Structures
1.
Amino acid sequence: MQASVSEVLLETPRARAQGADAGGVRDLIWLASPLAMLCLLVRHFDLESPAFLTLMAVSTAGFVVHYLLPFPYRLKAFLLLSLSAWAYILGPLPAAWLIGLGLCLVVLCRLPVPFWPRAMALIAAGLGLLALRSGWGETPWPVAIWPILGSMFMFRLVAYEYDVRHTPSLASPLTTLSYFFMLPNVCFPLFPVVDYSTFCRTYYNEDRRRIHQVGVEWIFRGTIHLILYRAVYQLLVNDPAEVVTAVDLLRYMTWPFLLYLRVSGQFHIIVGILHLFGFNLPETHHAYFLASSFTDFWRRINIYWKDFMMKLFYYPAFFALRKRGATQALVVSTILVFVVTWALHTYQWFWIRGTWLLAWNDALFWGLLALLVLVNSLYEWKFGRQRSLTARTAGWTDTVSLTIRTVAMFVTMSLLWSLWSTESVTTWLSLWSAARNWSTSGPPWMLPVCLAVPCLVALCTIAASRNWLASLATMGFELRSAAIVAACGLLLALSTSIVYKRLGPAGDMIAALRYGGLNQGDLFGLERGYYENLVGDRLNGDLWSLYMNRPIDWTHGLVESGVARRTGGFLPYELLPSVQGRFKGVTLQTDRWGLHDKEYSLLPAPGTYRMAVLGASHAMGSGVVREETFEAVLEDRLNRHTDGIPAKPYEILNFAVYGYTPLHQIAVLDDKVPRFHPNAMLYVAHPEDAHRVVYHMVQMVRDGWPVPDDFLKDVIRRANVNGTMPQRVVSQRLTPHGDEVLAWLYHRLVADSRSRGICPGYVFMPMVPELSYRADPRIQLQLARDAGFTVFDLSHVYDGADRRTLWVAEWDAHPNRRAHAMMADMLYGQLRGEERSMLSCSPGN
């Protein structure tokens, strides 16, 4: 007999939590199996960080225990699991400080005093922490905990105090602690603003099998979002300086909005994990790419934030002003919401990043969005908005109309998001000049992919309007779990090296999705917008080091590591002589001349063939000791006098320095190399040399550095740039001159070498990650040959190897000792072949 409505409403959380126990272990298996597959998927694709994988594993194991526990123990077990996971992921000391500071704030918000004295105590504590976060004093706790502490309390305290003030019965100590110390918060400083009353009200408020199943599905959905985000990040992102054609412009206007997939993916995973432990929270995002109006977009994206703003600001302001007229109340309340949203986003940026975000494009974005939402709201207020039940299938006329509006909305939001993500309004406006250039450049698939995005939005809109996927909602519990397991298995299979290496260009894209890493833009410090700077390695270097199990000092530069000094000249710094220090996880040791190499005499012994290596981090051997760099291994092998190599003593001196650009090599060659009297010079080139010389020139212009050559001065003059322009404008105007400057540089290195009796050699060293370079390496190699270098092409040195095993660390893609040995082997082989004449070169040739 079907239960009445009153019986359902009177059903307790305890009964609901036990409602699915009839399924017992069978249901647990159906729930845990997709979670285990999702853990494998996260590990296989190396999503987010090792800390995230740990969180997924802990959540899965904790869910199994939670499922089997009697109901009265589940909330306590959730809190214990959360605190234990925090200590395990962050480490005992950071976790102890974080939990201790959090408990102090919780005690303040539970003081047995009236609301306003309690609120003043919290405000005073907040101002004190604000001052410490600003750097007004030393703190005994690690700086890594600031982003998490901020995400726990900057908005959640307000929501908690608001709800407890209106409903004092909600102030349960156990629920309070569980609310502030939520398990997923340890890995996600950018956290949804969970409403406290909703957190309490939805705890096991339905059949628990359904709650858990929704959690599994949302974790799966969030994981797919993260993989799609990586696809956009690796394949679509481009720098404003690269926008020279209409296709480049279309590409740039497409990817910023799509990068929000990372935020929506994280939020789905966060709420999905909470579902595993009984918190039946609502959806955080609802198909926001399919919004058909600005008010519809506001309702769909970051729903928790919208509810938070409506509850605390919109409704109080609206009802206070309604007596003056509903229209006036709506206008003022809407403007207030967006002004406060802008201010609180700046506040959020401060707690997570430690600086205040005050930028014109940020204010302009929120101002334009506020205006558009307000106009849309007034329209709906006057004419009403169309509402339809999801079960109703729209007619084709309505479907076409809805599709047009949805695509137009997507395009508009993409334009606004690109403005928000660009360094300045001036830079964003300067990009539109590229719309006049319809020449083809870049990958041939770029235009179809960019056009496919709005087409996909249209197709999804039609499918939703016509209820084409309605049958998926009626799938049974076991079938839904099996579908997730099958989808994860398919993704795992397609992304194995055995499969993707047989798929040609598509396989290269799959490899980029699996291995991730920095894309080409981020290798040069590309800013990617508000949310992208609040997630990942940008939020806080110390916290990211904890997430990645990376030593905190890994991010230190050579000077901070104590092995280099600043010069105040054209070279920014130079290695100190006869020092050693920790750099990139190993001991960096220099000789008496300040080289990352073993000891050599100033002059070579009679009959010795000496080579000088110039380059940057890859050539210096970032992350490997000096005995394991490719030049050290090559020198040892040359001195074994094996077949095909002239028998003589060989010495290879390593003048490469981490962070030097190609233009710095002129100073190294002219000022440092000659006194060692080498026979030959090997310039180790980077695949992005053209962009590196542009980057260096941009810094010269922006920071007012002296320009060391008349040719470079002429390029800057012809590019019509100066230090008052935004950096991206300077970069955009100088980028077309990259190959020209690189050709000049190569000719200069060859000429300077030969004038000193040094034979010039050129080593093309690829990057370890499987990335598509922004410039064709063949052009760079041809420029080197045209300049007169003897060229050693190592483009295929890593072919056939699992490239991820060649990184110095899972967070650093510089070549490790094995990769350096592979480079030495290939270079040795080329010295035995046609390039062996390099070893016969003598001063004066």
2.
Amino acid sequence: MMREKSGGWLLAASLGNLLFLYLPIAVLVVYSFNAAKLATTWQGFSLQWYAALARDHALMVALQNSVLIAGVSTVIAMVLGVSAAVGLERLPRRQRAWLDGALLLPLVIPEIMMGVALLLFFVLVKMPLGLLTVTIGHAAFNVPVVMVVVRARLRKLDPHLEEAARDLGATPWQAFRRVTLPLLMPAIVGAALLAVTVSLDDFVVTFFTAGPGATTLPLKVYSMIKTGISPEINALSAILVLVSMGLVGLSLLIQRKTVHG
């Protein structure tokens, strides 16, 4: 009887958490189809606000900027993150400890501090703010994200596989490319999807490092909210939320298959 009661409380708590997390998102998505001009008054189903997004030139420019920044910063983060993950796993434990702390620091410090630090750095080196500085900022906080995902997979690999390839005459690079890299590929793909998601959703670092002509979708949403919440903002926010959730879900699915595979 006690187990049944505790199980009921746990189920109720879980359902409460799900409602707390997803009910606001559900309301946002539903009201993005609102025919009324006021976001809080329901007047029927309509797709007009999604059509309005497609006709908004400034919004399309922000979308292009977000996709470009996410793509380039993810490529940079993948090259640096995968290299760092492989290199750290092959270092002695004592040397690895302090490097771990340094490379994972962007995940620990508040994002606003990282934004201010990047802004000060770009000012000191006299680099004009724009798409390049935003891309560098996104790559900086995505490198540790990639490292964490790839290293989790590396620790589950059998090191004797690469050693066997070396014994059969393969060079270190050949052993890595033909043995380790294929085994890491699902984790690499999952990390890339996660990095794209984080980049598309970022506001704080982008806010501090963006300049003229570097407006992204989160910055566009922020500028639109200043004039009041409209169904058009709901539509744009719903697209961002659904795309982000889809990418995160796909990333987790790929990583789960990696673990069980």
